[in-house]
Amino acid sequence: MVFLAVYRTEASSMGICIKNCAQCKKMFGPYFEGQLCADACVKFKGRIIPDCEDISSIAPFLSKFDQY
User: Fold this and answer.
1) Could you tell me the pTM of the whole model?
2) What GO MF annotations does this protein's record show (predicted)?
3) Among the four 2, 49, 56, 68, which has the fewest Cβ within 10 Å?
4) Integer Cα distance of 41 and 47 in angstroms
5) Residues 60, 23: contact at Cβ < 8 Å?
């Protein structure tokens, strides 16, 4: 049972992480690397949770957008 509880917690955290990535992508558009964020969620099993209002938590996923 303990393993099941840990797995559920990991899955829940990963889901929150991916949802936050999607929210940040909506907010920042082409300036936010949503796929990179989602990949990090999977890689770190939801242990990092991006917060769109906390620049330090999303800095690795921000990029410059060149129009030219």
Assistant:
1) 0.80
2) ecdysis-triggering hormone activity
3) 68
4) 7
5) no
DSSP H helices in 1-68: 2-28, 34-43, 55-58
Query: 48: which 2 tokens?
Result: 């990092």
Other C-beta atoms lying within 10 Å of the C-beta of residue 31? 14
Nearest residue to 59 via CA among 28, 16, 14, 13: 28
Determine the length of the chain: 68
Tens of pLDDT, residues 9-41 = 667 999 999 999 999 999 999 999 999 999 999
Task: Kindly list the domain boundaries of the chain, sorted by start residue.
Answer: 2-61
Place of tokens 């990963």: 14
Could you say which DSSP state residue 51 is in?
-
